[in-house]
Amino acid sequence: MKRLGILLVFTKLFSCLLLGRAWHRSIKTKILNKYKLRIKLKKIKINSYKKFTIENIYIKDVKANRVHLLKSLSCCINVKSFLVGRINFTFIEANGLEIIFFKKNNSTSNLTFSPKGKGKFKSRIISKGISIFGYLPGNINFNGIKISFNDDEFFMIPFLRIENGLLHNRVSSMYNDSAYKENMLKVSNFVNTSDDSLKNHYPVSIFKGHSKIEIQFIEIVLNKKEVDSQELQLDFNFTNATIESSFISDDKLENQCINGIINFKFNDGEIIVDESSIVNLNQIPFSFFIEIELSEIDFVSIGVLLDEIEVTKVLEAFPSFMFNSSIANYLIGSISFALSLKFQLNYALNYIFDIQVSHDLKLASSDCLIDFKYLNAPFIHNILEDEQVIKTIELNKNNINFSSLDGVSEILKSTIITTEDGNFFSHKGFDKKSIGFAIVSNIAHRKFVRGASTITMQVVRNLFLNHKKTILRKFEEVIITWSLEEIYCIPKLRLFEIYLNIIEFGPNIYGIAEASEFYFSKSVKNLTLVECLIISYIIPRPKFFLDALINQSPRLLKNLKLYIDNYSQEMLRKGLIKQTEIDDIPLVIAFSKHLGTINLE
């Protein structure tokens, strides 16, 4: 790429000539075909025998759907290096750099994963990048950098300068334009070509969307193990970090520390972070490896290992839990786990996943703040919204809307188990297959699109937690789920009965009895196959289904028809229904009188 880039600049100088224009077009075509980069240079000025300026640079990364715009780029060349065939710069100045990331049209019919950047990596290019420190000068000046995401978010860097080994910069975002941070980064080794280490000490603030990370101290050391080695070692230490992110936690996380060592290897066709790499998260050590296999079919392998550790240390590393802040005081024992995932880059559903968890956990005392055994008896559950009780559910036979398992038809029970948690009666609260599929689905879409919640986990979320999708809330959900299944041994049938009576089906509609009456004016015993499938369809989307039904949403009609077709076939494969029952599913479905009918034809 470097050679073609030099040729592109050189041929632009002679583009006034017919032969020069043809040569320049040829170089641009080669870059487009090989690297999927469309490049335009408007004008090049020769300022002196060692300085040149390029004006109005346009670079579009076709594959990554990204555009780079640069008003001007001025460079000074080290003449002595140039005469012996090396290009080293003594000074670089760039003005008006803008990088724009455009949205891609996501298709839900296929799960695919496209790595950011140019697509497929080439190990020879990356190995050249190891020695990048030798090409950067001691003086760099960028004025006006803007990075835009999805047309609604951007970062501004008004200036970024390296002067005699010190980096000066200022960063802001559209969500906090007044919060400029002056950062001083000592990077003397960064510009020293005789030492391939990089050591930085500086406070920094990072904004993305409504998330914010402030790190008071950063130390990074990047070492090439030998002069011509294809191996790198990265030592890092982030101390006193404050994290505000609705993805991680509802609360501000303070005094977070993360450090570790990452070992990179670059072989022909492979990029490896080897298994000796380790990251300490608040003093919890995780070993991991990453391997990228570059061939006709590209694969990524990832592994994470937590060696045996006392559970109290794990729990103390996280903020207080919202439900039981003293849970760490009642669990003793050790825990370890190993996770491995291998998937195809351009088709994430081609994957292999495994997770193994070992432990000897138990309760240190029976004097817990709450004894979950109460779930085996009748109890009252309050539905909260904005910390206010909006509904009370009595889980006992005196409640006319309570549905005991004996009063629920087998077809409804089979439908909900199939659609929500097919392995409910065989797992112990967690379904390995669902976890693997959720991970690759989220990787494929580069965002959270699918969870791996079992019925037990949904019971925990509805009884004790909330529905916010944060990492720490999920962690607490896992702890309580494990407690219900393995410490208190709440029977599966009882968990399922609770689930059927507390799950939400719409505005102020909770439990299958209320849902059956509201949507079909029927008891739970009399629901047909298609009505059972519709009831199960509502469960993941209770707040949206009713409005979509009333408005006869085309999207609802399409998705519901697909859902009924897919899961009826799944139930047929499991021997839960017969083909004649599928053949009898109507295309015009009648709801209660106040809801009317829908036509899925």
Automatic annotation (TrEMBL):
Under InterPro entries, the record lists: Glyco_trans_51, Lysozyme-like_dom_sf, PBP_transglycosylase, Pep_trsgly
Provide GO CC annotations from the record.
membrane; peptidoglycan-based cell wall
Pfam families for the chain: Transgly (PF00912)
Gene3D superfamilies membership = Biosynthetic peptidoglycan transglycosylase-like (1.10.3810.10)
Q: Which domain of life is it from?
A: Bacteria
Q: Name one GO molecular function term.
A: pentosyltransferase activity
Q: Name one GO biological process term.
A: regulation of cell shape
Instruction: Fetch the SUPFAM superfamilies from UniProt.
Output: Lysozyme-like
First and last residue of the signal peptide:
none
- Which UniProt key words apply to this protein? Cell inner membrane, Cell membrane, Cell shape, Cell wall biogenesis/degradation, Glycosyltransferase, Membrane, Peptidoglycan synthesis, Transferase, Transmembrane, Transmembrane helix
| Keyword Flavoprotein appears in the UniProt entry | no
Q: Which residues form the Glycosyl transferase family domain?
A: 387-545
Give the protein name, as stated in the record. Glycosyl transferase family 51 domain-containing protein
Q: Give the species.
A: Pedobacter cryoconitis
